[in-house]
Design a protein that fits this description.
This protein has 205 residues and is an alpha+beta fold. It has one domain (29-201). The chain has three helices and six strands, in the order ααβαβββββ. It has helices at residues 27-77, 79-82, 119-137, and strands at residues 94-97, 142-147, 168-174, 177-178, 184-185, 195-201. The strands form two sheets. Strands 1-2-3-6 form a four-stranded antiparallel sheet. The chain has a two-stranded antiparallel ribbon with strand order 4-5. α1 packs antiparallel against α3 (119-137).
Length: 205
């Protein structure tokens, strides 16, 4: 009797599979990083723009306050004219928008060369010189000086309207600016006074 024995079959020896380790970033990861970086940069640019606008507005307000104090000093120095309530007699009373194409009238008397023996001529010179510098310093400013006993409305908001019968000469000033809502206001049409300053008493006492 023959016994058949199965010959042992050699099991193929397989070496360990070699897997290349992945390194670096995938395209998706790179895109996500770029998006996050872009959002951060946009936020930083927005904050910088807001800060620059706020700084510019602060400088404009400081300049307007300085001009208001200067005009008040000029009016106190020429009190006999400044107390008159009629614009025909008082050059310090005016309402003007000093745009880029605005021409400021040259006074008939040059106080530097001819002197100003008449106090009204001195007032006219003061106003023309002052308006020229305000025009150069502020973006399209509107300036109004009037005798007003009620420069604010019932809600406490400044207004251009004057009563013209007050005892105090009041300066009202604004310029082209962005309001708190980010809307551009034009002083000549949509804006309200930003600076309201009493200048001098309308009394000869």
């Amino acid at each position: 009797m023959h016994i058949h024995t199965a010959c042992p079959c050699a099991t193929p020896i397989r070496g360990p599979s070699l897997r290349r380790e992945q390194s670096g970033f995938s395209i998706l990861e790179v895109l996500i990083a770029i998006i996050i970086l872009s959002i951060g940069m946009l936020g930083a640019v927005g904050m910088q723009t807001t800060a620059m606008q706020s700084n510019k507005e602060a400088r404009n307000q400081a300049a307007a306050a300085t001009f208001a104090r200067e005009l008040a000093e000029k009016m106190r120095g020429n009190h006999t004219v400044a107390i008159k309530t009629a614009a025909a007699d008082n050059p310090y009373i005016f309402d003007t928008t000093l745009g880029g194409t605005t021409t400021i009238a040259t006074p008939a008397v040059n106080c530097f060369t001819a002197g100003c023996p008449i106090v009204k001529d001195a007032a006219t010179w003061d106003v023309a010189d002052w308006q020229g510098r305000v025009k150069d310093a502020l973006p399209t400013p509107r300036v109004k000086v009037c005798f007003d006993k009620d420069p604010f409305d019932a809600a406490g908001k400044a207004r251009w309207l004057c009563t013209d019968d007050g005892d105090i000469a009041v300066l009202k000033m604004s310029w082209t600016r962005s309001n708190t809502a980010g809307t551009l206001e034009f002083a000549a049409s949509t804006g309200v006074p930003v600076v309201v300053v009493p200048l001098t008493a309308g009394s000869s006492q």
